[in-house]
Amino acid sequence: MFGGSWTVERMERTNPDETGTRGVEEHARPDGAGNRRVPASAVRAMTTFTAADEEKQRGVRRMKLTATGLLLFVALVYVLAKVASHQGAGTWADYVAAAAEAGMVGALADWFAVTALFRHPLGIPIPHTAIIPNKKDQLGISLGEFVGENFLSEDVVRQRLRTVGIGSRLGAWLAEPEHADRVTAELATALRGALRVLRDSDVQAVVGEAITRRADAREIAPGVGKMLEGIVADGGHKRAVDLIVAKAHDWLVLHGDDVMDAVQGGAPGWTPKFVDRKVGERVYKELLRFCVEMRDMPSHPARGALDRFLIDFASDLQSDTDTRARVERWKGEVLARGEVQDLIASAWTAVRAMIVSAAEDERSELRLRVRASLLSLGARMAAEPSMQNKVDRWVEDAAVHVVTTYRKEITSLITDTVASWDAGHTTRKIEAHIGRDLQFIRINGTVVGSLAGLVIYTVSRALGA
Protein backbone atom coordinates (compact mmCIF):
# COMPACT_ATOMS: atom_id res chain seq x y z
CA MET A 1 0.00 0.00 0.00
CA PHE A 2 2.66 2.49 1.08
CA GLY A 3 4.84 1.81 -1.97
CA GLY A 4 2.03 2.43 -4.44
CA SER A 5 2.45 -1.12 -5.78
CA TRP A 6 -1.30 -1.53 -6.34
CA THR A 7 -1.16 1.11 -9.08
CA VAL A 8 1.81 -0.51 -10.80
CA GLU A 9 0.10 -3.87 -10.76
CA ARG A 10 -3.04 -2.36 -12.23
CA MET A 11 -1.00 -0.85 -15.05
CA GLU A 12 0.72 -4.14 -15.68
CA ARG A 13 -2.63 -5.83 -16.14
CA THR A 14 -3.34 -3.39 -18.94
CA ASN A 15 -2.32 -4.83 -22.30
CA PRO A 16 0.90 -2.97 -23.08
CA ASP A 17 0.58 -3.65 -26.79
CA GLU A 18 -2.87 -2.08 -26.95
CA THR A 19 -1.85 0.91 -24.87
CA GLY A 20 1.39 1.37 -26.73
CA THR A 21 -0.28 1.17 -30.13
CA ARG A 22 -3.01 3.53 -29.02
CA GLY A 23 -0.42 6.00 -27.81
CA VAL A 24 1.45 5.88 -31.12
CA GLU A 25 -1.68 6.41 -33.16
CA GLU A 26 -2.88 9.23 -30.95
CA HIS A 27 0.32 11.22 -30.69
CA ALA A 28 1.88 10.61 -34.07
CA ARG A 29 -0.75 12.84 -35.70
CA PRO A 30 -0.56 16.64 -35.60
CA ASP A 31 -3.07 18.27 -33.29
CA GLY A 32 -5.61 20.87 -34.21
CA ALA A 33 -3.15 23.69 -33.57
CA GLY A 34 -0.98 22.47 -36.42
CA ASN A 35 1.90 21.08 -34.40
CA ARG A 36 4.44 19.07 -36.33
CA ARG A 37 4.11 15.34 -36.61
CA VAL A 38 6.22 13.46 -34.07
CA PRO A 39 7.96 10.34 -35.41
CA ALA A 40 6.25 7.15 -34.28
CA SER A 41 9.62 5.72 -33.27
CA ALA A 42 9.98 8.48 -30.67
CA VAL A 43 6.56 7.59 -29.27
CA ARG A 44 7.27 3.87 -29.24
CA ALA A 45 10.46 4.55 -27.27
CA MET A 46 8.30 5.59 -24.29
CA THR A 47 5.38 3.22 -24.84
CA THR A 48 7.38 0.02 -25.21
CA PHE A 49 8.47 -1.73 -22.05
CA THR A 50 11.64 -3.68 -22.78
CA ALA A 51 13.09 -6.63 -20.91
CA ALA A 52 15.62 -4.29 -19.32
CA ASP A 53 12.78 -2.06 -18.13
CA GLU A 54 11.02 -5.06 -16.63
CA GLU A 55 14.19 -6.02 -14.76
CA LYS A 56 14.56 -2.49 -13.42
CA GLN A 57 10.94 -2.50 -12.34
CA ARG A 58 11.48 -5.72 -10.41
CA GLY A 59 14.36 -4.01 -8.63
CA VAL A 60 12.04 -1.12 -7.77
CA ARG A 61 9.54 -3.54 -6.28
CA ARG A 62 12.23 -5.17 -4.14
CA MET A 63 13.32 -1.79 -2.82
CA LYS A 64 9.70 -0.84 -2.13
CA LEU A 65 9.30 -4.00 -0.09
CA THR A 66 12.51 -3.21 1.78
CA ALA A 67 11.43 0.36 2.56
CA THR A 68 7.94 -0.73 3.54
CA GLY A 69 9.37 -3.55 5.66
CA LEU A 70 11.59 -1.05 7.48
CA LEU A 71 8.52 1.10 8.16
CA LEU A 72 6.65 -1.88 9.58
CA PHE A 73 9.70 -2.78 11.65
CA VAL A 74 9.92 0.64 13.33
CA ALA A 75 6.16 0.54 13.87
CA LEU A 76 6.52 -2.80 15.62
CA VAL A 77 9.43 -1.43 17.66
CA TYR A 78 7.26 1.56 18.63
CA VAL A 79 4.44 -0.67 19.81
CA LEU A 80 6.77 -2.96 21.77
CA ALA A 81 8.59 0.02 23.31
CA LYS A 82 5.30 1.58 24.42
CA VAL A 83 4.15 -1.71 25.94
CA ALA A 84 7.47 -2.09 27.75
CA SER A 85 7.27 1.49 29.00
CA HIS A 86 3.79 0.95 30.42
CA GLN A 87 5.03 -2.22 32.11
CA GLY A 88 7.79 -0.25 33.87
CA ALA A 89 10.73 -1.35 31.76
CA GLY A 90 12.50 1.91 32.42
CA THR A 91 13.38 5.15 30.61
CA TRP A 92 15.19 3.35 27.81
CA ALA A 93 11.82 2.21 26.46
CA ASP A 94 10.74 5.85 26.15
CA TYR A 95 13.87 6.68 24.16
CA VAL A 96 13.27 3.74 21.83
CA ALA A 97 9.62 4.66 21.39
CA ALA A 98 10.52 8.28 20.57
CA ALA A 99 13.07 7.15 17.98
CA ALA A 100 10.65 4.66 16.43
CA GLU A 101 7.85 7.22 16.36
CA ALA A 102 10.01 9.78 14.55
CA GLY A 103 11.19 7.05 12.17
CA MET A 104 7.59 6.26 11.25
CA VAL A 105 6.89 9.94 10.62
CA GLY A 106 9.99 10.27 8.40
CA ALA A 107 9.15 7.10 6.51
CA LEU A 108 5.54 8.14 5.91
CA ALA A 109 6.55 11.66 4.83
CA ASP A 110 9.12 10.38 2.35
CA TRP A 111 6.70 7.71 1.09
CA PHE A 112 4.19 10.47 0.40
CA ALA A 113 6.80 12.61 -1.36
CA VAL A 114 8.09 9.76 -3.55
CA THR A 115 4.64 8.47 -4.40
CA ALA A 116 3.38 11.97 -5.21
CA LEU A 117 5.90 12.17 -8.06
CA PHE A 118 4.20 9.36 -9.98
CA ARG A 119 0.59 9.11 -8.77
CA HIS A 120 -1.97 10.22 -6.21
CA PRO A 121 -1.10 8.64 -2.83
CA LEU A 122 -3.71 6.02 -1.92
CA GLY A 123 -5.63 7.11 -5.04
CA ILE A 124 -6.72 10.35 -3.33
CA PRO A 125 -6.44 13.34 -5.74
CA ILE A 126 -4.49 15.53 -3.34
CA PRO A 127 -3.31 18.80 -4.94
CA HIS A 128 0.26 18.85 -6.24
CA THR A 129 0.51 15.06 -6.47
CA ALA A 130 0.94 12.80 -9.55
CA ILE A 131 3.41 15.43 -10.70
CA ILE A 132 5.01 13.55 -13.61
CA PRO A 133 1.79 12.47 -15.42
CA ASN A 134 0.08 15.82 -14.78
CA LYS A 135 3.08 18.07 -15.50
CA LYS A 136 4.65 16.00 -18.29
CA ASP A 137 4.07 18.60 -21.00
CA GLN A 138 5.29 21.45 -18.79
CA LEU A 139 8.40 19.43 -17.98
CA GLY A 140 8.99 18.92 -21.71
CA ILE A 141 8.67 22.66 -22.34
CA SER A 142 11.04 23.45 -19.46
CA LEU A 143 13.51 20.86 -20.70
CA GLY A 144 13.41 22.32 -24.21
CA GLU A 145 13.97 25.85 -22.87
CA PHE A 146 16.81 24.62 -20.66
CA VAL A 147 18.54 22.94 -23.60
CA GLY A 148 18.04 25.98 -25.81
CA GLU A 149 19.41 28.44 -23.26
CA ASN A 150 22.29 26.37 -21.92
CA PHE A 151 23.39 24.19 -24.85
CA LEU A 152 22.28 26.00 -28.03
CA SER A 153 23.50 29.50 -27.26
CA GLU A 154 26.14 31.15 -29.45
CA ASP A 155 28.67 31.56 -26.63
CA VAL A 156 28.39 27.93 -25.53
CA VAL A 157 28.74 26.59 -29.08
CA ARG A 158 31.74 28.79 -29.89
CA GLN A 159 33.50 28.01 -26.62
CA ARG A 160 32.96 24.28 -27.00
CA LEU A 161 34.14 24.17 -30.61
CA ARG A 162 37.12 26.38 -29.81
CA THR A 163 38.32 23.97 -27.15
CA VAL A 164 37.99 21.03 -29.56
CA GLY A 165 40.47 22.51 -32.07
CA ILE A 166 38.79 21.12 -35.16
CA GLY A 167 41.22 22.78 -37.58
CA SER A 168 44.36 21.18 -36.17
CA ARG A 169 42.74 17.79 -35.62
CA LEU A 170 41.22 17.70 -39.08
CA GLY A 171 44.52 18.78 -40.60
CA ALA A 172 46.49 16.07 -38.81
CA TRP A 173 43.88 13.51 -39.85
CA LEU A 174 43.87 14.56 -43.51
CA ALA A 175 47.67 14.65 -43.65
CA GLU A 176 47.72 10.85 -43.29
CA PRO A 177 47.80 9.21 -46.76
CA GLU A 178 45.33 6.48 -45.84
CA HIS A 179 42.84 9.06 -44.61
CA ALA A 180 43.25 11.13 -47.77
CA ASP A 181 42.66 7.96 -49.81
CA ARG A 182 39.52 7.26 -47.83
CA VAL A 183 38.13 10.78 -48.28
CA THR A 184 38.97 10.68 -51.99
CA ALA A 185 37.15 7.38 -52.41
CA GLU A 186 34.12 8.67 -50.50
CA LEU A 187 34.02 11.84 -52.59
CA ALA A 188 34.29 9.79 -55.78
CA THR A 189 31.42 7.56 -54.64
CA ALA A 190 29.27 10.55 -53.77
CA LEU A 191 30.07 12.21 -57.09
CA ARG A 192 29.19 9.08 -59.06
CA GLY A 193 25.98 8.68 -57.12
CA ALA A 194 24.96 12.30 -57.69
CA LEU A 195 25.68 12.14 -61.42
CA ARG A 196 23.76 8.90 -61.82
CA VAL A 197 20.75 10.23 -59.94
CA LEU A 198 20.51 13.29 -62.17
CA ARG A 199 18.49 12.76 -65.33
CA ASP A 200 20.40 13.67 -68.47
CA SER A 201 17.37 15.29 -70.07
CA ASP A 202 16.87 17.64 -67.11
CA VAL A 203 20.53 18.66 -66.93
CA GLN A 204 20.76 19.10 -70.68
CA ALA A 205 17.71 21.35 -70.66
CA VAL A 206 19.14 23.43 -67.82
CA VAL A 207 22.59 23.72 -69.44
CA GLY A 208 21.14 24.57 -72.84
CA GLU A 209 18.82 27.19 -71.38
CA ALA A 210 21.60 28.70 -69.26
CA ILE A 211 24.02 28.99 -72.19
CA THR A 212 21.37 30.37 -74.53
CA ARG A 213 20.07 32.86 -71.97
CA ARG A 214 23.55 34.06 -71.12
CA ALA A 215 24.48 34.40 -74.79
CA ASP A 216 21.28 36.33 -75.52
CA ALA A 217 21.77 38.65 -72.58
CA ARG A 218 25.30 39.67 -73.51
CA GLU A 219 26.46 41.36 -76.71
CA ILE A 220 29.44 39.52 -78.12
CA ALA A 221 30.63 41.90 -80.85
CA PRO A 222 32.62 44.32 -78.60
CA GLY A 223 34.33 41.45 -76.82
CA VAL A 224 35.19 39.72 -80.08
CA GLY A 225 36.47 42.99 -81.51
CA LYS A 226 38.68 43.68 -78.51
CA MET A 227 40.05 40.14 -78.62
CA LEU A 228 40.72 40.41 -82.37
CA GLU A 229 42.45 43.75 -81.84
CA GLY A 230 44.75 42.20 -79.25
CA ILE A 231 45.53 39.21 -81.50
CA VAL A 232 46.49 41.48 -84.43
CA ALA A 233 48.56 43.74 -82.18
CA ASP A 234 50.51 40.74 -80.88
CA GLY A 235 50.88 39.26 -84.35
CA GLY A 236 49.07 36.13 -83.33
CA HIS A 237 47.10 36.05 -86.58
CA LYS A 238 50.30 35.69 -88.63
CA ARG A 239 50.70 32.06 -87.63
CA ALA A 240 47.19 31.39 -88.91
CA VAL A 241 48.00 33.16 -92.19
CA ASP A 242 51.23 31.15 -92.54
CA LEU A 243 49.32 27.93 -92.01
CA ILE A 244 46.57 28.84 -94.48
CA VAL A 245 49.02 29.96 -97.18
CA ALA A 246 51.16 26.83 -96.75
CA LYS A 247 48.13 24.58 -96.96
CA ALA A 248 46.87 26.46 -100.04
CA HIS A 249 50.24 26.07 -101.77
CA ASP A 250 50.34 22.35 -101.02
CA TRP A 251 46.80 21.94 -102.30
CA LEU A 252 47.58 23.79 -105.52
CA VAL A 253 50.62 21.58 -106.11
CA LEU A 254 48.53 18.43 -105.69
CA HIS A 255 45.50 19.65 -107.62
CA GLY A 256 47.01 21.71 -110.46
CA ASP A 257 45.08 19.85 -113.16
CA ASP A 258 41.82 20.38 -111.30
CA VAL A 259 42.43 24.12 -111.11
CA MET A 260 43.24 24.38 -114.83
CA ASP A 261 40.21 22.26 -115.76
CA ALA A 262 38.00 24.53 -113.67
CA VAL A 263 39.32 27.63 -115.41
CA GLN A 264 38.91 26.05 -118.84
CA GLY A 265 35.41 24.91 -117.98
CA GLY A 266 34.38 28.47 -117.20
CA ALA A 267 35.62 29.90 -120.50
CA PRO A 268 33.14 30.95 -123.25
CA GLY A 269 32.30 28.29 -125.79
CA TRP A 270 33.48 30.30 -128.80
CA THR A 271 37.12 30.53 -127.58
CA PRO A 272 39.60 28.02 -128.98
CA LYS A 273 40.62 25.14 -126.72
CA PHE A 274 44.34 25.96 -126.81
CA VAL A 275 43.55 29.51 -125.67
CA ASP A 276 41.49 28.15 -122.77
CA ARG A 277 44.36 25.84 -121.88
CA LYS A 278 46.87 28.69 -121.95
CA VAL A 279 44.60 30.83 -119.79
CA GLY A 280 44.15 27.98 -117.30
CA GLU A 281 47.89 27.40 -117.08
CA ARG A 282 48.46 31.11 -116.61
CA VAL A 283 45.88 31.40 -113.83
CA TYR A 284 47.29 28.36 -112.07
CA LYS A 285 50.84 29.67 -112.19
CA GLU A 286 49.76 33.09 -110.89
CA LEU A 287 47.90 31.48 -108.00
CA LEU A 288 50.88 29.30 -107.18
CA ARG A 289 53.25 32.28 -107.38
CA PHE A 290 50.98 34.33 -105.14
CA CYS A 291 50.92 31.61 -102.50
CA VAL A 292 54.70 31.15 -102.67
CA GLU A 293 55.34 34.89 -102.32
CA MET A 294 52.91 35.23 -99.39
CA ARG A 295 54.47 32.19 -97.76
CA ASP A 296 58.04 33.38 -98.16
CA MET A 297 57.62 37.18 -97.85
CA PRO A 298 56.55 38.44 -94.39
CA SER A 299 56.25 41.95 -95.88
CA HIS A 300 54.04 40.91 -98.78
CA PRO A 301 51.47 43.60 -99.67
CA ALA A 302 48.62 41.11 -99.28
CA ARG A 303 49.68 40.46 -95.69
CA GLY A 304 49.64 44.17 -94.98
CA ALA A 305 46.21 44.52 -96.57
CA LEU A 306 44.97 41.64 -94.40
CA ASP A 307 46.37 43.32 -91.30
CA ARG A 308 44.59 46.58 -92.14
CA PHE A 309 41.35 44.73 -92.81
CA LEU A 310 41.49 42.90 -89.47
CA ILE A 311 42.29 46.14 -87.62
CA ASP A 312 39.36 47.92 -89.27
CA PHE A 313 37.05 44.97 -88.61
CA ALA A 314 38.06 44.85 -84.94
CA SER A 315 37.30 48.57 -84.66
CA ASP A 316 33.91 48.15 -86.37
CA LEU A 317 33.01 45.31 -84.01
CA GLN A 318 33.56 47.63 -81.06
CA SER A 319 32.17 50.91 -82.34
CA ASP A 320 30.16 50.49 -85.56
CA THR A 321 26.43 50.12 -84.85
CA ASP A 322 25.56 48.30 -88.06
CA THR A 323 28.40 45.78 -87.70
CA ARG A 324 27.45 45.03 -84.10
CA ALA A 325 23.80 44.58 -85.05
CA ARG A 326 24.70 42.17 -87.85
CA VAL A 327 26.86 40.13 -85.46
CA GLU A 328 23.99 39.94 -82.96
CA ARG A 329 21.58 38.78 -85.66
CA TRP A 330 24.09 36.18 -86.76
CA LYS A 331 24.54 35.04 -83.15
CA GLY A 332 20.80 34.63 -82.71
CA GLU A 333 20.48 32.66 -85.95
CA VAL A 334 23.33 30.35 -84.94
CA LEU A 335 21.94 29.72 -81.42
CA ALA A 336 18.48 29.04 -82.81
CA ARG A 337 19.68 26.25 -85.08
CA GLY A 338 18.81 22.77 -83.90
CA GLU A 339 22.30 21.49 -84.53
CA VAL A 340 23.75 24.04 -82.09
CA GLN A 341 21.17 23.22 -79.40
CA ASP A 342 21.88 19.52 -79.86
CA LEU A 343 25.61 20.22 -79.53
CA ILE A 344 25.07 22.17 -76.30
CA ALA A 345 22.84 19.44 -74.88
CA SER A 346 25.22 16.64 -75.84
CA ALA A 347 28.09 18.43 -74.10
CA TRP A 348 26.62 17.37 -70.74
CA THR A 349 26.58 13.72 -71.76
CA ALA A 350 30.24 13.88 -72.71
CA VAL A 351 31.22 15.74 -69.54
CA ARG A 352 29.20 13.36 -67.36
CA ALA A 353 30.76 10.28 -68.90
CA MET A 354 34.22 11.78 -68.52
CA ILE A 355 33.68 12.65 -64.84
CA VAL A 356 32.15 9.26 -63.97
CA SER A 357 35.01 7.45 -65.68
CA ALA A 358 37.58 9.58 -63.86
CA ALA A 359 35.81 9.06 -60.52
CA GLU A 360 35.79 5.27 -60.95
CA ASP A 361 39.46 5.04 -61.93
CA GLU A 362 41.70 5.13 -58.84
CA ARG A 363 44.66 6.25 -60.95
CA SER A 364 42.79 8.93 -62.89
CA GLU A 365 44.14 12.44 -62.95
CA LEU A 366 41.03 13.70 -61.18
CA ARG A 367 41.38 11.41 -58.17
CA LEU A 368 45.14 11.87 -57.99
CA ARG A 369 44.74 15.64 -57.97
CA VAL A 370 42.00 15.47 -55.34
CA ARG A 371 44.15 13.22 -53.16
CA ALA A 372 47.17 15.52 -53.55
CA SER A 373 45.02 18.53 -52.71
CA LEU A 374 43.69 16.85 -49.57
CA LEU A 375 47.18 15.92 -48.42
CA SER A 376 48.40 19.46 -49.06
CA LEU A 377 45.40 20.93 -47.28
CA GLY A 378 45.89 18.60 -44.31
CA ALA A 379 49.58 19.47 -44.04
CA ARG A 380 48.83 23.19 -44.11
CA MET A 381 46.03 22.88 -41.56
CA ALA A 382 48.26 20.84 -39.26
CA ALA A 383 51.21 23.22 -39.48
CA GLU A 384 49.78 26.72 -39.97
CA PRO A 385 47.95 28.31 -37.02
CA SER A 386 46.39 30.89 -39.33
CA MET A 387 44.84 28.12 -41.42
CA GLN A 388 43.64 26.34 -38.30
CA ASN A 389 42.04 29.53 -37.01
CA LYS A 390 40.35 30.11 -40.34
CA VAL A 391 38.86 26.58 -40.39
CA ASP A 392 37.81 26.91 -36.75
CA ARG A 393 36.02 30.17 -37.53
CA TRP A 394 34.26 28.58 -40.50
CA VAL A 395 33.06 25.69 -38.37
CA GLU A 396 32.03 27.97 -35.52
CA ASP A 397 30.13 30.31 -37.82
CA ALA A 398 28.37 27.39 -39.50
CA ALA A 399 27.42 25.79 -36.18
CA VAL A 400 26.27 29.11 -34.71
CA HIS A 401 24.17 29.77 -37.80
CA VAL A 402 22.48 26.39 -37.44
CA VAL A 403 21.76 26.66 -33.72
CA THR A 404 20.60 30.29 -33.87
CA THR A 405 18.48 29.79 -36.96
CA TYR A 406 16.97 26.46 -36.00
CA ARG A 407 17.07 26.66 -32.18
CA LYS A 408 13.29 26.76 -31.98
CA GLU A 409 12.95 23.73 -34.26
CA ILE A 410 15.56 21.80 -32.25
CA THR A 411 14.02 22.55 -28.87
CA SER A 412 10.51 21.96 -30.17
CA LEU A 413 11.63 18.45 -31.09
CA ILE A 414 12.16 17.83 -27.37
CA THR A 415 8.91 19.53 -26.39
CA ASP A 416 6.79 17.80 -29.05
CA THR A 417 8.36 14.42 -28.37
CA VAL A 418 7.67 14.64 -24.64
CA ALA A 419 4.14 15.86 -25.36
CA SER A 420 3.54 12.85 -27.62
CA TRP A 421 4.39 10.35 -24.88
CA ASP A 422 1.53 8.58 -23.12
CA ALA A 423 1.39 9.85 -19.54
CA GLY A 424 0.82 6.43 -17.97
CA HIS A 425 3.59 4.69 -19.82
CA THR A 426 5.95 7.63 -19.31
CA THR A 427 5.33 7.55 -15.57
CA ARG A 428 5.82 3.79 -15.46
CA LYS A 429 9.05 3.93 -17.43
CA ILE A 430 10.55 6.82 -15.46
CA GLU A 431 9.68 5.08 -12.23
CA ALA A 432 11.38 1.91 -13.45
CA HIS A 433 14.57 3.86 -14.15
CA ILE A 434 14.81 6.05 -11.04
CA GLY A 435 12.34 4.44 -8.61
CA ARG A 436 14.96 2.22 -6.97
CA ASP A 437 17.04 5.22 -5.97
CA LEU A 438 13.94 7.02 -4.74
CA GLN A 439 13.14 4.12 -2.40
CA PHE A 440 16.47 4.80 -0.68
CA ILE A 441 14.99 8.19 0.20
CA ARG A 442 12.28 6.37 2.16
CA ILE A 443 14.88 4.19 3.88
CA ASN A 444 17.04 7.20 4.68
CA GLY A 445 13.99 9.08 5.89
CA THR A 446 13.18 6.24 8.32
CA VAL A 447 16.75 6.10 9.66
CA VAL A 448 17.30 9.86 9.81
CA GLY A 449 13.86 10.38 11.32
CA SER A 450 14.60 7.86 14.06
CA LEU A 451 17.92 9.50 14.90
CA ALA A 452 16.38 12.96 14.83
CA GLY A 453 13.53 11.81 17.07
CA LEU A 454 15.98 10.28 19.51
CA VAL A 455 18.05 13.49 19.63
CA ILE A 456 14.98 15.67 20.07
CA TYR A 457 13.56 13.45 22.81
CA THR A 458 16.95 13.36 24.56
CA VAL A 459 17.29 17.15 24.45
CA SER A 460 13.69 17.58 25.64
CA ARG A 461 14.29 15.27 28.59
CA ALA A 462 17.50 17.02 29.42
CA LEU A 463 15.90 20.48 29.32
CA GLY A 464 12.86 19.20 31.22
CA ALA A 465 15.12 17.72 33.89
Describe the structure.
It comes from Streptomyces curacoi. Residues 1-37 are annotated as: Disordered. There is one protein chain. Helices cover 84% and strands 0% of the residues. With 465 residues, the chain is an all-alpha fold. Among the domains are: 5-134 and 422-464, no CATH class; 220-323, no CATH class.
What structural class is derived from the secondary structure elements?
mainly alpha
Mean pLDDT: 81
Beta-strand fraction estimate: under 5%
User: What share of residues is helical?
Assistant: over 70%
Number of helices: 22
Q: Which of globular, elongated, flat, extended, rod-shaped describes the shape?
A: rod-shaped
pLDDT under 50 segments (min length 5)? 1-35
> Taking Cα atoms only, what radius of gyration do you get, to the nearest Å?
47 Å
Pattern of helices and strands = HHHHHHHHHHHHHHHHHHHHHH
Number of strands: 0
Biased composition (Basic and acidic residues): 9-30
Region (Disordered): 1-37
Pfam families: DUF445 (PF04286)
Protein name: DUF445 domain-containing protein
